[in-house]
Structures are given as C-alpha cells and as structure tokens.
Amino acid sequence: xxxxxxxxxxxxxxxxxxxxxxxxxxxxxxxxxxxxxxxxxxxxxxxxxxxxxxxxxxxxxxxxxxxxxxxxxxxxxxxxxxxxxxxxxxxxxxxxxxxxxxxxxxxxxxxxxxxxxxxxxxxxxxxxxxxxxxxxxxxxxxxxxxxxxxxxxxxxxxxxxxxxxxxxxxxxxxxxxxxxxxxxxxxxxxxxxxxxxxxxxxxxxxxxxxxxxxxxxxxxxxxxxxxxxxxxxxxxxxxxxxxxxxxxxxxxxxxxxxxxxxxxxxxxxxxxxxxxxxxxxxxxxxxxxxxxxxxxxxxxxxxxxxxxxxxxxxxxxxxxxxxxxxxxxxxxxxxxxxxxxxxxxxxxxxxxxxxxxxxxxxxxxxxxxxxxxxxxxxxxxxxxxxxxxxxxxxxxxxxxxxxxxxxxxxxxxxxxxxxxxxxxxxxxxxxxxxxxxxxxxxxxxxxxxxxxxxxxxxxx
Amino acid sequence: xxxxxxxxxxxxxxxxxxxxxxxxxxxxxxxxxxxxxxxxxxxxxxxxxxxxxxxxxxxxxxxxxxxxxxxxxxxxxxxxxxxxxxxxxxxxxxxxxxxxxxxxxxxxxxxxxxxxxxxxxxxxxxxxxxxxxxxxxxxxxxxxxxxxxxxxxxxxxxxxxxxxxxxxxxxxxxxxxxxxxxxxxxxxxxxxxxxxxxxxxxxxxxxxxxxxxxxxxxxxxxxxxxxxxxxxxxxxxxxxxxxxxxxxxxxxxxxxxxxxxxxxxxxxxxxxxxxxxxxxxxxxxxxxxxxxxxxxxxxxxxxxxxxxxxxxxxxxxxxxxxxxxxxxxxxxxxxxxxxxxxxxxxxxxxxxxxxxxxxxxxxxxxxxxxxxxxxxxxxxxxxxxxxxxxxxxxxxxxxxxxxxxxxxxxxxxxxxxxxxxxxxxxxxxxxxxxxxxxxxxxxxxxxxxxxxxxxxxxxx
Lengths: 460, 460
Description:
The structure is a homodimer. The first copy, chain A, is of the alpha/beta class. The first copy, chain A, has helices at residues 16-20, 28-42, 69-79, 89-92, 95-107, 123-137, 151-163, 180-187, 199-209, 233-239, 277-288, 295-305, 315-340, 350-359, 385-393, 398-410, 437-459, and strands at 53-54, 146-149, 170-173, 191-194, 212-216, 248-254, 268-273, 366-367, 376-377, 380-381, 412-413, 415-416, 429-432. The first copy, chain A, contains 17 helices and 13 strands.
C-alpha cells in the first residue's frame, strides 16, 4: 500500500513572482476561446457563431495570411539539402531560393542545419542582419553586435536578466505596454515606471542620465500612414550625432511580426550598440545557458533582413507578395479607422468608400485613436455605470467583463485593456486587425451589434 | 558637439547573479577554440594542427553525424507544403514522410506552420509525444501533461522559475552536474545541494519528503552497455506503485541529444506528472510569456517520440540509420573505454581488438569510469604537483590549465571538469565521443602524446 502524501507544490508554494504576472494575450479570454472552439468542434451549432475569430494575438498566419514563398523555399531546402543536387528541384524551387539555400549551407561551419550554433547565432546570418540594418538606417551595423534569438521575447528576457539587479532597478516603459515587459520585469525582480514616449526626447534623456534604451522595433515594416516612416532609435541617435560612446541602445526585432508573420518560427535578433566587450561577454554567457537559438528561426531572420533585391529572379514575386500583405493591412486599418473613429472617409478608394459610407456610424460609447501602424486597434469603452457595477459584482474589471460577453456572443476574441496597463480608471479592449478585408468588414457589424445590445442592456 | 558620457552599464553594474554563473561547455575553452579556428582559416599552416576537434559540446551533427532522412523530409515538407500537391514530390520524398507531413499539416488549427501555437505546443504533436512515452514506459501518459519546449534547457529554466522562491529553496543535484542546473538555480536565486544518485532511493526520498523530481532524461536512447536499459523516473515510481497523488515528477527530453542530435533545432518536451491544475495553469502562464516553442522543434520532437513503425514504408531505412548511429556510438565508447580504463578488451570485435590491443596502454596519471551511456567520458587527471603549482601561478585551476594546453597543442577542445562541479580537490576533463570511430582512433594517440609530454614536462 502506498502512503499518500499530497505533492507539496501547489499554486500557494510556487514562486510568488510567477503568481503576480499576467500575460493576457494568451490569458483567460484566449483560453475561454479555446474551450469554445472545442465546443464548436464537438457540438456544431451549439453556439451562436460558427467559428472563433482570434483577434487576441498578433498572429497573422493563424488567420489565413500566406507565408512568403521565397522564405519557405529556403527553409525547406535547408532542412533537406539533398534536394539541392536533384534534377527535379529547379522545377519545384525558384533559382533564387536554391542559390540562397546553397549559400547558407556553405556558410555553416558543419555544412548542416542540425548542430548547435554559436550562442549568438551563425556568423553569416548575423552578417546578413547587420547588412539589412545598415541599408535600412544609413548608419553602419556590426555583425558582432547582433545576437540572433528565439523571437524578440527571448531577447527581452535576456536583457532584463542582464540589467535588473533588484527592485531598486527601474525600467521606464510607455503605457499601454506590451505585457512581456511587465511580466519580464516582475520575474526578474525589477520595478516598472511609466515613461515619456517621444523618440528624440527619450534619446536625449537616456544619454544625459546614462540609461540603456531597449527599443521594441518589431513593427518596423507595419506603417499605414502617408508621410510617416519607421526610424530606429539607433538612427535617431546617430542623426543627433550620438555614437556608441554616448549611448547604449538595444533594438529588438523578430520574424513573427513585421509583414511576414512567421510567428511560430521564433526567429528574431537584438542589436546591442554602445556596450563594452565585458558586458557583451556576459550577454553571450547568459545566451549560452540555452546554448543557441533555433536554426530555422535564425535563417528566417536573415531572410527578413536580407530579402531578394532588385535584379534577383525572385525579386518581383517577393515584392508582390509583400506588397499584397502590406496593402491588405493598410486597407484593414482604414476600415477599422472608419468604423471606430470619425475620420479618414475621404482617403478610401471610391468602391470601399461608397459601401462603407452608407454603413458608417461611429459607435456610442467608443473612442479610438487612428491606426497608423502595427496590427491592433485599442478602442476606449465608455460603459454605462450599471455595466461597471455588474462587472464589480461578478468580481472582474469592466474590460474583462466586456471581452467575455463579446466572446460569448460573437466568437470574437480580444484582449482586455488591463492586460496592457491601460490608464487607471479607463476601459479598453485590444483587437488585432488580422481577419482579411472581407472578414473584417463582416466582423465589424457583428461587433457593432453586440456593442449596441450591450449598451442597451446596461443603460436601462 | 556631443557631451560624452560613458554608458552606465558595465560588467560591474549588471545583475551580479549573471557574473557568478559559468557555462563552460560554451565557455573560455570553446571561445579560445573559435579563435584558433579563425586563425587556421586566415593563416593555414600557422598552428600545429589542421583543424579543431570540438569535443566540448554534445553536438553530433557539428562533427559530421548525418540527420535522419525521415525527420528532415517531414520538416522540409511542412516548411513548403505546396510540395505535397506536386507531381514530382513522390520521386523526391518517401511516402511515409509525405503521409506524416500531410497528417501534421491537417492537424494544425490554421493548417500552416507559421502561426503561434498554444504555449504548451500543438495538441496533435503533444499526443504523439504522450503516445511515445506510454509505449516506452508501459504506463499511460496524458498529452495535457506535455509541454513542448525550445530544447530541454528552456524547460529546465521554466521549472526553476516556477519552483524557486528564494535562496531558502534548495535543489538537490547529483555531481558532477550538467551546468545548466547550477546556472539556472543561481539565476533564479536558489541554492544547490549535492544529492544521492540511486533512482529508487531518490523516488522513495522525494515521496516521503514531498519533493519534486526534475528528471533530466535526454540521454534515454544513449545506452552502450549489455544488460542495461533506460528506465524513466516515472516508470520507476509507477513500478513502485506510486501514482500522481504520491509524487510530482518532471521529465525533460530533447531532440538535441538522444541518437538524433538535432541540437540546433531546439526541440524538446517536459512531462509534468503529479501537479494540480492550479500549478499547471501557472506553468502555462510562464510558458506564454515567450508565447510558444518553435514549430520546427515541436514537429521534430513529435517525430523523435513517434518515429516510423514496423510496417511503415520508411521503417527499415529509419531503423538502419538509427542503428548505424547507435552502433557507432557504442564502438566509440568501447574505443575510449579501452584507452582510458584497463577493461573491456575482450568485448571488442576481433578486428578492432587486434589493432587496438597492440596500441593499448592505459595512460599514466589518468583514471576513468567506463562509458555506458550518453556522449562523454570524464577522465580524472592525477597531475604532478609542479603542474598544479604552475597553474596556480598563472591564476587558473589545474583542469583549465590542462585543457588550454591540450587545445593549443592538438586542437582538441574539451571542457575543464570544474565546469561540472567535479569533486573538490580533483581534476577532470570532459570529452565528448563525437568524432567517428576512425577519427576518434586518430585523436586518442594525439591526446596520449600530448598527455605524456605534459606529464614529462611537469614531472621534471
């Protein structure tokens, strides 16, 4: 007979920092959505909608975005390089992809993609990333300042591990934030403080105070506004004539976001400029505790930063695929702007304009900033006091209450704004603009109908 | 003019825990080896050897081991699934791989491999892993207890993050250890204590004391001893009639080690049995801070645990490739055992025996346990006191001194035993048995010649 003793590890006895953190994009609404998804699969027709619309996470390919052909061809060839010598291959793969895959394979110390690499990533791939940064910024980038990483999240965690000594160390962070920052700061024992957000001000302030800039630049390709463009923090600093003796900057980028949305591949890099060799060695050491980033992600990151160029055989098809994604995001941003804020009708093309102008009507109790970049809108909800009271009675905050109701009624999964540390006393939801134009136009009336019913129910 | 202020982050101002840790398999000897490698490339003939023999890291494919064809075919098809519908594909890929890739693609919620997945991994792949564990142990495994991870290292870090609250929490660890344990325990603020090593004793002790077993089972396929086989901790516990109400066990496995050596792919899993739903939810939450493990690694892990079976078209070729790797490791273990310990000559096949018996001569000042599993030998060095004094004068420990000398003289990179917390007052090196039989037979005389010269130099 065994002597039963309950295991000693419970949610009460684990690391209390773990208990405190929250990561709402994959949090309670996301998990409730997964349960509903299972319900739909097991009992079709049992819910008032046929599918879950996952607008909680910036996860383009989960909502039907196609990967870039060139990227996937190169990955596929590097996985199975015996193809490079087969007669059938040129009929199945573009010349460009074959050439690039061969170049990558030749540059690997062991000529295969199964070995551990250097903890900061394969040198030739870091070189490709550095070249891409130099071309983007017009200022040089050194491959020895590049660390390839398993997505930007791993890089953020690594830097927090390096920088935070105790709760006396504070990280200034603009709010609303992306929750990896608060989670990582809490897990590493630091303190988060709200910061200023103007790029040049930040550079001046950090230079004067000797602070490190951690620049989350994963949406550098996602700009949907005329006359606006991405400027990296390093470029801003260099343009102000500050070099690496003046200022330490870490830039995070990833193959998950941007236009390509290769999220599940966990590719990314950080560029660390303005750090001494001693600190770089410590970063290298911490990176080596997990030995190296995954190779497919390393390759993908090099392709993102060094895609086919004018003159390359694949350039036109690559450019067309990229443009299609970009213009689709641009259109979706416009549709959402149109519905959630009272502007921008004039800038629509005539067809869309006519259709939508008729339908257009800004929603009661919603105000929203214009979407000019990234993948999300973040409308503020001005809810009736009875809704707020009901939420309180149910023991949840109003944004969680609203997001739950929205999901149960429509199958649309969003993230409660409190997951991003919305301003105290305000109520927001975050919704990714990932469904394609057609679907987003179908989704918004459902969202509107829910919202109107919700407002009506609680206004009484 | 810019006002120059040195950046405030130096090795003195970073997290002191980072400064303390060491990770010697990628540490000073490894980095010195990389510098020598560069020297060889830039000035061929400038060193007394033509290549670096990397025996510092368990990294089989970096030393020429070929990947399993079936695994790479499946990965390649999942990267570029348009191939699945091409007429040429059946001539390029095995039917088995095509079938498996199609099954995996169909099981993905978004039917593609570019999206974020659940933070614990794709359900169908977790099911494959659980099925593999059930078949291996003869006890059931629940896919909801499986977390797919970016290699075993990521899983170890995750569990340390969950379990360690402060330096009052101790992790019992057998010594010599693999240094991710000490590094991860230090980074998470815990305390490491040396433990007992008998499997049944550990189970009984942990059950009585209510302790969690963290079982590093990444070498479960690497056993090179007659009449010995791998038994998982879970199997041992279940065989003693302890169920998940009695004991919490976490088992780590990886696609990096085992026989397949897909190290750079960062695939792995942990099976957590005997934890409540509340703890599992906290583990899920911490996993979600980096969103999800990389998809190629997830797929690979499912293939490792659910490879082609008897009756499958690819079974024989898969089995042959696997057997070839296994028997090669077995032979290498024998060669090393023969040279480093005075036993086992009888068990060699006649050819090898005749060649080696002539050469056989155990080395002065070296004693070594027999290699019966994993990828390494860990000889103890009994060095002359003058060598120890010289090391001290140079400010390094004798093992580091010896490993540096070995690398500079022969190009063989090993890891100083202090990187694994060798017993105090002893001197060891760790050497991976990765060069193939031919190369390892060529390497050992070089190692021997170096060792004899070293002993002679310091005995005088």
